[in-house]
Amino acid sequence: MAKLNKDAAVHGILIQLPLPPQIDAGRVLSAVSPAKDVDAFHPENVGRLVQGRPRFLPCTPQGVQQLLIRSGIEIAGRHVVVLGRSHIVGRPLSIMLSQRGPGGDATVTLCHSVTRDLAAITRTSDILIAAIGRPKFVKAEMVKPGAVVVDVGINRTAEGLVGDVDFAAVREVAGAITPVPGGVGPLTIAMLLRNTLLAAQSLET
Amino acid sequence: MAKLNKDAAVHGILIQLPLPPQIDAGRVLSAVSPAKDVDAFHPENVGRLVQGRPRFLPCTPQGVQQLLIRSGIEIAGRHVVVLGRSHIVGRPLSIMLSQRGPGGDATVTLCHSVTRDLAAITRTSDILIAAIGRPKFVKAEMVKPGAVVVDVGINRTAEGLVGDVDFAAVREVAGAITPVPGGVGPLTIAMLLRNTLLAAQSLET
Questions:
Q1: Per-residue pLDDT band at B30 (split at 50, 70, 90)
Q2: Average per-residue pLDDT in chain A?
């Protein structure tokens, strides 16, 4: 890792998780130079994100945010409910969408496995983002008519790749909805490339 | 700062904000050794907090959390509404209370100046935490009967120190409420001393 951090020909480093059990993932992630950490998983980059001065935005949350912005979905002042508090998606997304400025200023509620009366909360959301890894968990009766539904889930099931949202039923009530596969997934890769380009530009200057 | 970071007789460093305008506060805060950063404002410590493996917890949010825990207030599964998204109080508190484990597992909604229909949201909260710096902003009709109200505000007004909550009116509907002065304030100092002790123990071993 020290060699890659120093190598001027390397602009971005991504640790493919999960690592084998004998390797401490936290230590490996912290060893990546923050300037090459295109996943934005290094604690310094997570901290900078929270402080509103990010070097890179984490890829999947950034993809979701760009999807909303570029689809002309109003975010500021609206109630966003994020399902799932993972370090990779739910947590950073809840932070990004509630931050001051463009692409933010939403009122965000972060829900998770311990949340009580979940459907009552999700029904109040203007934008519902599912990132919990449970196939077809979000049903039509959990969604406010006209709400925007973003499905970050990718679950391998007997019937193929399935999101966290019961797409066929929810599309009947939602104002807009993303499919799985083909919705958020490709944006994650695009944002990774974007971060790598940003890293290269920053390291070369 | 480099001298203090190296001095083995110094265990904790706190930057008293605000700094004079010619000094870049971000650079100064980032120059504090994370191991001596008893305020927990260094980006690495903020990142570790988000990742659920904090070195130190920020003082005021930690005080609020301890106040709830030691008063026997149930946090897990309950709906907490945090008013204010400052880097010092609202943001880290919203993260801490929604994290997995003891003192966490709440469903947290973070509200701020751009939030629409604020009273409708605050009225759904089991625990309401005000940290916006506006005297007597929270009125009785914004509080669900029986809710726990924590007032982090300290506003200097003509009638003296006043919190963010209209104490006299809200105490009539709340199930529990903290006063200003004398509520959260002293806990901030206690947690700063706790962090300094933790820093010393960690640096001496």
A1: confident
A2: 96
Contact, B125 vs B145, CB < 8 A?
Answer: no
Residue B101's closest chain A neighbor by CA? A114
Phi-psi region of A102 (alpha: psi -120 to 50; beta: other; left: phi over 0): beta
Residue in A53, A76, A114 nearest the CB of B114: A76
Say if the Cβ atoms of B50 and A47 lie within 8 Å.
yes
Nearest CA in chain A to B48: A43
- B26 touching A (Cβ < 8 Å): yes
Residue A105 tokens read as 């200023």
Asked if B91 and A50 come within 8 Å (Cβ–Cβ), the reply is: yes
- Does position B202 have pLDDT exceeding 90, yes or no? yes
Q: Which two tokens stand for residue B44?
A: 């690495």
Query: Which pLDDT does position B22 carry in this prediction?
Result: 96
Best B107, B125, B144 residue to mutate vs chain A (most A CBs within 10 Å)? B107
The Cα diameter of chain B in Å comes to: 53
Of B47, B53, B109, which has the smallest distance from its Cβ to A47's Cβ? B47
Residues 6+ apart with CB under 8 A from A203: A8, A11, A35, A36
pTM of the model: 0.95
For residue B91, which of B131, B42, B134, B32 has the smallest C-alpha distance? Answer: B131
Measured distance CA(B157)–CA(B162) in Å, rounded: 7
On chain A, the residues whose CB falls within 8 A of the CB of B75 are none
Mean pLDDT of each 10-residue bin along chain A, 205 residues long: 96 93 90 96 95 95 98 98 97 98 97 98 98 98 98 96 98 98 96 97 92
pLDDT, tens only, A141-192: 999 999 999 999 999 999 999 999 999 999 999 999 999 999 999 999 999 9
Q: For the packed helices B90-97 and B43-50, what is the interaxial angle rounded to 10 degrees?
A: 30
The mean pLDDT of chain B is 96
